[in-house]
Amino acid sequence: MNKNIGYAVAFAIALAAPFVGYPVFLMKLLCFGLFACAFNLLIGYTGLLSFGHAAFFGAAGYFTGHALGAMGLPVEAGILLGVAGAALIGLVMGMLAIRRQGIYFSMITLALAQMVYFGFLRAPFTHGEDGLQGVPRGKLLGTIDLSNDITLYYVVLAIAIAGFALIVRTIRSPFGQVLKAIKENEPRAISLGYDVDRYKLMAFVLSAALAGLAGATKTLVLGFETLTDVHWSMSGLVILMTLVGGMGTLVGPILGAFIIIALENKLGDLGTWLARSTGIEWFSTLGESVGMVTGLIFIVCVLLFRRGIVGEIGAALAAAARNRKAA
Amino acid sequence: MEIFGVPLQAMMSQLLLGLVNGSFYAMLSLGLAVIFGLLNVINFSHGALYMMGAFLAFIGVTSLGLNYWVVLLVAPLLVGVFGILIEKTMLRWLYKLDHLYGLLLTFGITLLLEGVFRSFFGVSGQSIEVPEMLSGATNLGFMMLPNYRAWVVFASLGVCLATWFVIEKTKLGAYLRAGTENPKLVEAFGVNVPLMVTLTYGFGVALAGFAGVLAAPIINVTPLMGSHLIIVVFAVVVIGGMGSIMGSILTGLGLGIIEGFTRVFYPEGSEVVVFVVMVIVLMIRPAGLFGKEK
Predict the structure, then answer these.
(1) What is the pLDDT, as a whole number, of residue A200?
(2) Could you give the C-alpha distances from B20 to B14, B27, B226, in angstroms and in order?
(3) Which chain B residues are closer than 8 Å to A107 by Cβ?
(4) pTM of the entire predicted model
(5) pLDDT tens-digit profile of A67-118?
(6) Closest-CA residue in chain B for A282?
(7) Is residue A145 within a helix (H) or strand (E), and if so which, with residue range?
(8) Count H helices, E strands: chain A?
(9) In Å, how far are A88, A98, A185 from A101, measured between CA atoms?
(10) What is the nearest CA distance from A108 to chain B, expressed in angstroms?
(11) Dmax over Cα atoms in chain B, in whole Å?
């Protein structure tokens, strides 16, 4: 019951947000929120740490950008192409990576994603270091003009909610329960007769496709796509978002994504403010040291609160409920 | 003289370059394997510590006016001490948790270190001079051999083989191998395992620092130099498996040479050839060339 009220409030805020905030920034938040949720499907509910999710996010962005720009396809086809491309890359990467377990899985995904990065760096249609510029937004269903930020915002919101709903549905389905069983105890899941590798692969492809949906939508919103999105640091960033919000919680990754993206955007302002109020000149360079700050957050999160914000709140609530019962 | 239409001179120099890269791969993957064996941590910050070694060399030679040979000794020691600090203050708390937290923590340390060096040195490259003793080249008749590159290969191989000898043939190494197998039992025999773990981590990252100093005169020293390297080294580790010390050394060298050959015959492929080999190995022998299937 409480949860439904929470979702209703969040939905109401999301509907009103573009009239208060800057729509493009809000859309960026939504895209990264979806990206983090897609990543969380693997780490939080299947126990697989992928270090290569930038490959899906960025690849879909490039495919969609190319489809909308150079090929002149309609919006729907462009996004679909991006998602399909990401899913295909996910299928190949997944088939290779699940041949090894644990930490090797992470290293393999990282190495394969680096290979994808070089692919996009060298492929002629990506324009290398320049990236894709001026991707048109076009018209939805041939009639609704998306060049208006508010209109596009509601489309992006619908996409993000659909993606999130799919993730929730997956987690609560029997399929999701099997994934959870694999996370908790893989040998036991095998001995119960589940074809663990197939389940892992399906989860991997689904996660890749959803990360692709986020990347494709982001290109549509911003109108450009660069190598930043396929770089390994993007894979690290999505891990950080999920870690900060709470791995294995439904809304944690969204919150984490909002915090990290907002921090990235506002770090320069924060630094200027700190420099002015403390008089330490060094702070004014904070805007250029995003990596340093994200690194620090990583360290603090891993050492001090591994459950993330939502996870810690959930644990605190559970502890309070236990105490009440005991008293 | 030509082989498959490639002049022998060009071929040999690319091969030497491959051998130089291969010795870096060997030293770094060796360190990763030793650390993973005892700590169960995949040390992402290995690349950043390699970068740190190179920068310490740069600072030592240009700002402090130290001799290359002094730096070659002191910089890895400092990197090792820094590693010990990391182990004592941070890594220590994660041993009982899932391996992935060790990877995430060291990834965070990587970002932090790169950020710090970036704020001091910017992104443009620095470099130090090749020491006088090793400058110039030797004419081998069929090619000119740059002395410094020969020294890099020689020094790395020497360090790798010495490490192999200590771990496989001495009593200290026996403790280490036993600790990898069953730390509780070794502790029951009165060996100070936590100290051993700390020193092992320090030694492993000192190897990375040593590689960094060796690399400083021949590559562009930038804050980001370690990141790409560590990803390639991860692929090397996946190919070789972390079960065997000699396996790590041979895989590292072999892949460097394969990369060198690729640069001769198909230059565009040299960036990804290690990853391609990894894919092939995963398909044919998923446990890795020297790995044990668990």
Answers:
(1) 93
(2) 10, 11, 16
(3) 42, 234-235, 237-238
(4) 0.89
(5) 888 888 888 889 999 999 999 999 999 999 998 888 889 988 999 999 999 9
(6) B119
(7) strand A144-145
(8) 13, 2
(9) 21, 7, 13
(10) 7
(11) 64
Q: A-chain residues within 8 Å CB-CB of B112? A: 291-292, 295-296, 298-299
Tens of pLDDT along A121-170? 888 888 877 788 878 887 778 777 777 888 889 999 999 999 999 999 99
User: Which chain B residue has its CA at the smallest distance from A100's CA?
Assistant: B286
For residue B4, the distance in angstroms to the closest alpha carbon of chain A comes to 26
Asked whether residue B294 carries a pLDDT value surpassing 60, the answer given is: no
Spatial separation of the C-alpha atoms in residues A34 and A144, rounded to whole Å: 23
> Whole-angstrom Cα distance, residue A172 to residue A176?
6
Return the structure tokens found at A227. 């190598």
Distance in Å, alpha carbon of A254 to nearest chain B alpha carbon: 20
Q: Which residue of B has its CA nearest to A305?
A: B101
ipTM of the complex: 0.88
Per residue in A185-223, pLDDT (tens digit) is: 888 999 998 999 999 999 999 999 999 999 999 999 988
Q: Which residue, chain included where needed, has tokens 């044990």? A: B292
Query: Mind telling me how many Å the CA of A13 is from chain B's nearest CA?
Result: 33
Q: Is the dihedral of CA A172, A176, A178, A179 positive or negative?
A: negative
Q: Which of B115, B235, B287 sits opposite A111 (nearest CB)?
A: B235
Write the CB contacts of A112 (distance below 8 Å, at least 6 apart in sequence).
A52, A55, A93, A96, A97, B275, B278, B279
Distance, in Å, from the CA atom of A198 to the CA atom of B41, rounded to the nearest integer, reads 28
Cβ contact B114–A107 (<8 Å): no
Cβ separation of A296 and B99 shorter than 8 Å?
no
Q: What residue segments make up the domains of chain A, in order of their start?
A: 2-230
